[in-house]
Design brief:
Layout lengths: L2 E2 L4 E6 L3 E6 L8 E6 L2 E4 L22 E2 L7 E2 L2 H15 L3 H5 L2 H4 L3 H17 L11 H7 L20 H12 L7 E5 L2 E7 L1 H6 L1 E2 L5 E6 L7 E6 L10 E2 L8 H12 L6 H5 L14 H15 L30 H14 L3 H18 L5 H19 L7 H18 L8 H12 L4
Parallel strand pairs: 10-13
Antiparallel strand pairs: 1-2, 2-3, 4-12, 5-9, 6-7, 8-9, 11-12
Bound molecules: S-adenosylmethionine.
S-adenosylmethionine binds next to strand 3, helix 7 and strand 10.
Length: about 450
Amino acid sequence: MEQSVSREVCLEHHPTARNKAVAARSLNAGSVIITVPALSSVLYQSAKGQRCDACHRLSSSTDRLRKCTGCAGYWYCGTECQTKQWKAHHRIICKELNRYLTSPEYQSMSEHDRVDALLVSQLFAQFFPNGQEERVQDDQFSTFMDLMKSPARRQCPPLCIKRGTLSASQAKAQDLYDRFGNNNFILHSHLNSYAHGIFPQASRLFNHSCMPNAVAKYIITPSEPVRMDVIALRNIVEGEEITLPYLDPALPSNVRQEALRSNYGFACKCDLCSVTNVASPIVPPPRGSEELENMEIALHIFIFGTPGGTIHIPRGTNYYRTMPDTLTPLLHESYLPAISEIFSRASHEGQYEEALHVGPPLLALYFLKYPLNYPQIGMHALELAKTAWNAIVMNVPTSSRDDVQAYLAIASQVLNNLGPEGDGDGPLEELRLLKQALGENV
Ligand SMILES: C[S@@+](CC[C@H](N)C(=O)[O-])C[C@H]1O[C@@H](n2cnc3c(N)ncnc32)[C@H](O)[C@@H]1O
């Protein structure tokens, strides 16, 4: 049976995942499929004092954050955010926070688990402010309680709330925590992760694919809860399932399968998993060898159509379906991390020739592993464009304006499809400045 959610999406039956989100009408690439506010979120330790704990805006020299004078552990951009969080949950957490953060239980947790421990505490404080009996009525929270539980049942950490109510609350907290593993999101700005958040409507709707046709981005607006926008990566036809990636599609297929099975309880049957159902066992030839050089040239030809020189935006999709067997070693789990490490180091240290030698095969590999318009493709193309531009400025003979323009064209297509997200400026502003430097109309 079909259940309408909005003009864009409806829910249909799924044989094992309860429901699936389906396009209620044709959706264009780049369109916002849904926009939903966070029910609750917690910053990573590294973002504490840098971002407002409530709305996530960054501190600046003109807009400094002020810390809560009660606990000195939560920071706000103004009284509006502070008052909202105080009323929602901080009045119940504040007095306990310092004892909690220094407790042996909290100290022994991983960074990921610490963030979730505070998140479950916030949720409990907000919706069971008087202990476990009285539940605050809220549509978003009801949707959260209707979410599927994680198959990997993990014990809920102790809560950061008054000691007296702790033992009675733990069973209820477990009920909340059981939904964390397969529903919570990692928030990012320009692809840098900075928080965990709960977006019940998005969790209720979207199943996973390693070749998704949509991605989540986060919108930060002063004094408002952070929002998730789900964006179409490509045109989606009416009736097609809309999917998100629950993990990085570029991970080796055996790593993806294992993570999806243990954290989410399903065996992925997406196109990518059914084509490359095992990670390549063949180790690629060593860097510097002629064999690897030839393999990278073959990859370049396969994706970009030419053995080198100027790159044109690849128009195809699903390259993994027709990839020649000779390229299989490049799917080995060691290849992608090694080549991206070389690129980052070389471009950072000004070794432009080396960076521009490994950068294009890395870009080709991204086209192979990621779906059309996947943000990582655009971010790497932008890095390549900046590296090629810096090389021109430093008179490195192997770089040309055509190269910069070609990388910029790819970056533009992908990053404009994604649109503004996270903190202001960022990649879209870098694109604009680089185009300006090239003398292009911006
Ligand atoms: C965030 S929920 C997705 C929404 C869910 N379909 C619903 O009706 O509430 C995540 C859960 O959906 C199921 N799921 C998600 N993607 C799936 C897929 N590709 N194949 C099978 N099950 C999937 C798994 O049980 C997973 O733990």
